[in-house]
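Support request from a user on the community tier.

User writes: "When I paste my structure tokens into the form, the page sometimes reloads and wipes my input. The last time it worked, I copied everything first. Here is what I submitted, just in case something in the input itself triggers the reload:"
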């Protein structure tokens, strides 16, 4: 068998049954990485030797677990005690973390093999990976197009079969949007479901780690392994982790699917609109009730998100001062000069824009008008969902308005780039889980481009969300499709 052309669970089972060894598996992936990473630029760093050594340990029976031998890619804003953790920023170009990110560690404890770290928009700020200091990642479905962002490298690595699953972080859509644009399942768990320890902070009240997979079942497995309380992250929830994998097979009865007009705008590509219709039909066929819900504050999501996220970013990124770690300028005249030149040289333009916006909205005189007001609107957005979930179990909506856009299409106008997140940011503001599932393909100039459908659910209701996602997966039937490289 070719270990690079299956699902994560399929590969896991094949390794466990010794149909293929972990060493053969890792070698096959490294071979593909050699061939396809240069044109796609998904990985920033690959850990050949470490991965082969762990594979040998799996084959010798020294490493066991539900992910034994499965090669995974991690976004390069997750600290690992090996290799570098750069956040795709010049600021951290040579940074070596002294500890491991809990989510990554949990995968490793379950036997997974981390193949490498993937490209992102610098510090996870962006929707296309065009803000990476190490070059953009290309979409494996069409190399002239973006893979989405900020976790574009993790999405492209999986779409191109350069790993069997990958990790992203989602502050305003950075798992769901690239999953949609690369034809994958991308899950943002409930805030607090997965530990953020060792994830380089962008906006701490919004950030959450989650998996990219080919299938919903694979997503359930990775979530299962990653979830749970972590004494090292006080915002991780101390509530039991359900059996996501086992519960996937439970029947769905009495399901109510919510549709909100705020997400079904004319701006949606016709292919997206049709995919929603098909999903609605699929749910009805399985006995679900479709209810209309109102999310009246949806339109305030983007401005609210870009105030809250930049405010938190300006505070979180204050630590990169050239003193303790990260880039330090040469021959500073004094301490202020050291700070300002280190930061001017280390950060890229989008990161600087966010820091300035965030510092502005937090500054005396503007705090009440912007930051405080945004917090109030955030509460209203959360209230919209609370009300909607009295009437339905999940809201069905698009992940993005259409398929992947071209490089450069939105870089001249930051606002247009920000608007790309209209359907994803509200889940982060409300803290609720969201999953993007492949919903079909748009054909643009003869090229097939994936689109995604999104399901938003109640807090800690990932189990049901995954079962609902499986309905779309079965109906759309595109999870087995791969781009021609
Ligand atoms: N695209 C959004 C932003 O630029 C979301 C990023 C993310 O989720 N990390 O902030």
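"...and here is what came back when it finally went through:"
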């Amino acid at each position: 068998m070719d270990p690079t052309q299956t699902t994560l669970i399929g590969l896991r089972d094949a390794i466990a049954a010794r149909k293929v060894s972990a060493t053969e598996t890792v070698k096959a992936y490294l071979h593909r990485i050699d061939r396809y990473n240069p044109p796609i630029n998904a990985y920033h760093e690959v850990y050949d030797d470490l991965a082969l050594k762990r594979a040998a340990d799996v084959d010798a029976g020294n490493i066991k677990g539900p992910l034994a031998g499965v090669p995974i890619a991690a976004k390069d804003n997750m600290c690992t005690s090996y290799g570098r953790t750069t956040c795709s920023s010049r600021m951290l170009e040579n940074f070596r973390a002294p500890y491991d990110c809990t989510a990554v560690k949990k995968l490793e404890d379950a036997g997974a093999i981390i193949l490498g770290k993937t490209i992102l928009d610098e510090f996870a700020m962006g929707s296309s990976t065009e803000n990476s200091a190490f070059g953009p990642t290309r979409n494996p479905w069409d190399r002239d197009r973006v893979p989405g962002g900020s976790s574009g490298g993790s999405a492209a690595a999986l779409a191109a079969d350069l790993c069997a699953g990958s990790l992203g972080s989602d502050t305003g859509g950075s798992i769901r949007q690239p999953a949609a644009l690369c034809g994958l399942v991308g899950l943002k768990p409930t805030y607090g479901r997965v530990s953020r320890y060792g994830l380089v902070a962008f906006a701490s009240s919004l950030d959450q780690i989650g998996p990219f997979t080919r299938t919903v079942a694979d997503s359930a497995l990775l979530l299962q392994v990653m979830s749970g309380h972590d004494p090292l992250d006080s915002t991780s929830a101390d509530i039991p982790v359900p059996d996501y994998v086992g519960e996937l097979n439970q029947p769905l009865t009495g399901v109510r699917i919510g549709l909100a007009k705020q997400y079904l705008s004319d701006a949606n590509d016709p292919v997206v609109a049709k995919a929603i219709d098909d999903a609605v039909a699929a749910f009805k066929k399985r006995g679900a009730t479709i209810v209309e819900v109102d999310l009246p504050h949806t339109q305030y999501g983007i401005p609210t998100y870009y105030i809250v996220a930049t405010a938190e970013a300006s505070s979180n990124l204050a630590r990169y001062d050239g003193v303790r770690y990260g880039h330090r300028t040469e021959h500073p005249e004094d301490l202020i000069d050291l700070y300002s030149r280190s930061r001017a040289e280390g950060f890229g333009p989008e990161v600087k824009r966010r820091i300035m916006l965030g510092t502005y909205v937090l500054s005396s005189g503007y705090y009440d008008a912007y930051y405080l007001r945004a917090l109030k609107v955030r509460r209203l957005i959360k209230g919209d969902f609370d009300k909607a979930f009295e009437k339905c179990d999940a809201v069905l909506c698009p992940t993005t308005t259409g398929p992947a856009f071209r490089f450069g299409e939105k870089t001249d106008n930051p606002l247009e780039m920000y608007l790309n997140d209209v359907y994803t940011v509200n889940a982060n503001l409300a803290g609720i889980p969201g999953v993007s599932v492949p919903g079909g393909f748009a054909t643009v100039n003869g090229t097939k481009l994936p689109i995604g459908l999104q399901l938003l659910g109640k807090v800690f209701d990932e189990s049901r969300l995954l079962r609902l996602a499986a309905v779309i997966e079965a109906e759309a039937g595109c999870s087995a499709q791969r781009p021609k490289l």
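Agent notes: The reload is a front-end session timeout and is unrelated to the input. The pocket of glutamine is lined by residues 124-127, 150, 170-174, 202, 309, 421 (CB under 6 Å). Residues 8-251+436-476 form a domain with the Amidase signature (AS) enzymes fold (CATH 3.90.1300.10). Escalated to web team.
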